[in-house]
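Late entry, evening session. Most of the bench is empty. Finally got around to the prediction I had been postponing all week. Sequence below, unchanged from the version circulated by S.P.
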Amino acid sequence: MSLAIPLKDLILSQQQTNDVKVLPVELEHVLALQSLPSHHSDPFDRLLIAQSKVENAVLVTKDKVFKKYKIKTVW
C-alpha cells in the first residue's frame, strides 16, 4: 500500500483533525484479556478490544466479529 504522505504525518494529522489517540499497552489492558469471551482468536485484536473496553474508546475496524464484544466501533 502506498500513502500520499509519510505515515508519521498522516498519524499526526489524524490526531489533530479527528482527536485520534494512540494508546500505550497498560497492565490494566492485559489483565482485561482474561474476561473477554473467545469470539476472536487473534491476540493483537483481542488486545485492541480489551483496550477499547477499559478506556471506553471507539475502535476503528471493519471486522464484524468485534461487535460481539459490545464495544463502540466505526467503519
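Two things to note before I forget:
Residues 59 and 73 are 5 Å apart (CA to CA).
The first strand starts at residue 59 and ends at 60.
Will write this up properly tomorrow.
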